[in-house]
Amino acid sequence: MKHLKLKYALRDSELVHISQVESGGSHGCTCPACNKALVAKKGIKREHHFAHKAGDSCEHAVETALHYAAKEVLDRHRKICLPEAFITFNSNRGHLKISEEKTCSIESLKIEQGISGFVPDLIAKVRGRELLIEVFVTHKVDEQKQQKIIDSKLSALEIDLSKAPRNMPLEELEELIVNQCENKTWINNERVNEEYKKILSQTLERQIRTTHVHCCPVRSRKWQSQSNVNFMRECIYCPL
Ligand SMILES: [Zn+2]
């Protein structure tokens, strides 16, 4: 997707696809990233696309255009499929599922608006809560941004479009963004964090003072033919 041609431009704040304009002129179309005028290139040999005028360099055009395309698609459908969410334990207990994959209504949507010292690609409102949506094209969310997202105490979803085919038609992009979940991961999930805190406090309330717990009902590990677990390593992550 790195060399993807620019397929979208802005005109009077509306997103325009290359198929909607005549070849050769600017038609009032500007770059979503740098606001400079674009030219529609619709020749016979090369893939139809918008191009900056000679001499204008623009690094983020395709990435920003896809953020606008994602917003446009979500605005039109007003729903999004969200993936399952799990608590992952630092023990051999495996995962605890907190929520199933489900499609939720989007109440409102904003693009690239600053929040607590960082700029998420999209901010959606789902079930009265803000949900941050990151669209990964060439720039994955780095550790610094991830930490800011966690500190903001808002759930954040990443939609990975980095491996999507170059000539992906709009309908497939819509399908990936709205209805599918395979390319979506939670960067931060506040329900998972809240449930995890609950489990932790419930476990600590038991005031187990020994380092090992004998006859563990979970029986995650056996020692001397009894189920026996290490308190610090396993019990504090256990929901039972
Ligand atoms: Zn540009």
In a few lines, what is going on in this structure?
This protein is an alpha+beta fold and 240 residues long.
Tags for this model:
binds zinc ion, zinc, 16 strands, Znf_SWIM, single chain, alpha+beta, 3 domains, elongated, five-stranded mixed beta sheet, 240 residues, three-stranded antiparallel beta sheet
Outline the structure in words.
The protein starts with 7 loop residues before the first strand and ends in a 10-residue tail after the last strand. Helix content is about 20%, strand content about 30%. The longest helix is centred in the first third of the chain and has 17 residues, at about 60-75. The chain has a five-stranded mixed sheet. A three-stranded antiparallel sheet has the order 14-16-15, with no helix packed on it. The chain is built from four helices and 16 strands. A hairpin with a 2-residue loop joins β10 (about 120-125) and β11 (about 130-135). The mean pLDDT is about 85. It is elongated, with a radius of gyration of 24 Å. α1 (about 60-75) packs across α3 (about 170-180). The chain has three domains: about 10-60, no CATH class; about 65-190, no CATH class; about 205-235, no CATH class. It is α+β, with helices and mostly antiparallel strands. It has helices spanning about 60-75, 145-150, 170-180, 190-205, and strands at about 10, 15, 40, 50, 80, 85-90, 95-100, 100-105, 110, 120-125, 130-135, 155-160, 185-190, 210-215, 220-225, 225-230. About 25% of the residues are buried. Bound molecules: zinc ion (ZN). Zinc ion binds near residues 31, 52 and 61. Keywords: Metal-binding, Zinc, Zinc-finger. It comes from Agarivorans gilvus.
